[in-house]
Each structure stands twice: as structure tokens, then as C-alpha cells.
Amino acid sequence: MIYTITLNPSIDYIVPVNKIELGGLSYMENDYKLPGGKGINVSRILKALSTDSVALGFVGGFTGKFIEDALDELDVQTNFVNIKEDTRINIKLKSDQETEINGRGPALSDEEVAKFLKQLEEIKEGDTVILSGSRPPSLSEDFHEKLIRQIKSQGAEFAIDTTGAALEASLSYKPLLVKPNIHELEALFNVKLETNEAVVTYGKKLLEKGAKHVIISMGGDGALLITDRGNYRAEAPEGKLINSVGAGDSMVAGFISSFLKSKDAFESFKTSVASGSATAFSEDLATTEAIENLRSQIQIEAI
What we know:
Blueprint: E1 2-6, E2 10-16, E3 32-36, H1 38-48, E4 53-60, H2 61-73, E5 77-78, E6 81-83, E7 88-94, E8 98-101, H3 110-119, E9 128-132, H4 143-153, E10 157-161, H5 164-170, E11 177-178, H6 182-189, H7 196-208, E12 214-217, E13 223-227, E14 230-234, H8 247-262, H9 265-280, H10 288-295, E15 300-302
Parallel strand pairs: 1-4, 1-9, 2-7, 4-5, 4-6, 9-10, 10-11
Antiparallel strand pairs: 2-3, 7-8, 12-13, 13-14, 14-15
Helix pairs in contact: 1-8, 8-9, 9-10
């Protein structure tokens, strides 16, 4: 089984506004609300790829109920810990530029955290856990590492899509996949990467530190896959960028879904790029049809 972990989920409140009058009154063209959080996005794309998963994490209040109900409608299996405080709301303001205003997240009690850790004891050898996104402020800075130690001690694999110290600390535990974007890779090593060769050089450092597969997403410049068997570049397919939210999560889901079935990193990279691009070209996350339509267009070259 695949488990996704979203420690700090949200309702993503999408607000398109034709023209914003700062300090004045602006009107929405329309609005819509989606179950948000990186691991939840991964579970939704896995479902689109006919791959079952269980979404884990913390939800609370009327906002948490919205997320559970929305995922139930999408037939995504969940096993959230219900908490006392409300799940956060993140505002995605779409105008001439896209602006995000994210909530910090709820405070979690010791009892709520203990219940979540108890749930993880169900994970076993042969399972894969995908850890995505940030942690609520009430959790310790090393909480991701604590989870990874528990997951590995139970014989499961894991993939991780986070940043900074949490990403760096995960590498020695040999994650199946890490997927920083180019800006996160630059921040991790405090460098400016201006060529594909430079990106590969620093991506290989993640391999050397323990990662089994590394995908570096570069927006309109495509993506790179770095493995111990070779390095590959995929060009971004042509299309209109509509939505940057969830594209990286879709790439993670695409790779893991394909790789666990085929063990073929090259083909899984193709599915990964198709999934991320299909989401970028959609108002919400990608559909099965959109991913399949793009997959045949993905061009990959060895570098």
C-alpha cells in the first residue's frame, strides 16, 4: 500500500480576480474550494493513475470535515487524526500574477500526535510512504526525521518532497525519490545554477548523500532525472500555464505510481513530467485523460 502524509493540510480557496485594487474594493469573478496539502494532492493524482493510497495526517473543525468529505467524493481513502483546532485555509489569489496567502496551521496536542504515530505502526514491509510539504509550527523541526526512522524500522520505503533541513536530514535514510525544484536545490547548497550541467552536478550530490532517484523540476525549462544509471532531461510540453499549485506533487505521484509497478525509472520519469504538466495546464489537479494525452508528447534525452 502507498500512504501519503500531509502534516499541515488546508482548504485551498481559489480566488480569481480580474483587477485587484489594493486598499479598495475588488470583486471575485468566481471562487472555488479544494482539499489542499501536498500529500493530499499526491493521493488525488495517484487515484487518477489508478493507484490506491491512504491519505494520513491531521484534520479538524469545519474545514477538516470539508477535506474529508471532498476526498470521500473523489473516492480517495483517508485515515486522518481528528484534532481540536481547525484545519487552515490557504488563499490562492489569481489575477495578473498569482499570489498565495497560506495559514500557519493548527497547534497539535501531545495526545493527537501520539495517536498519529500509533497509526504509523500499521505500515509494513512492502509499503511506500510519501511525505510531502511543511509541518505545523507546533511540531518539532526534526519531526520528519522521526517519522522516517519509524517508517524505515518497519521495513517500508519512503519518498519525500520537502525543503531545507528536513530534506537534507532525510537523505541518509535512502529515500526512493526526492524532488526539489531548481530554486530549492539552489537554496539547499547556497548556489546559483544557470546550466543543466550545474543542476546535474548538485543533483548528484543528493544521490551521493543517499537518495535513490532525484527529480529536479525547472518549470518551463522542463525537468531532470538523476540516477546512478544515468541522467535524463525532459522538455516541458507546450501548453498554457493555468495553475502552478500541485504540479510538483503531481510529478511525485506520477513517478511513484509508475515506478512501483514497472521499476523503470525512465518510463516513470515520463509519467512524472506528464502528470506535472497536465496539472499546470488545468484549473485543478490533472485528470487521467489529460495525463495520458500529454504522456505521448514527452521527449526525454540522456545527458
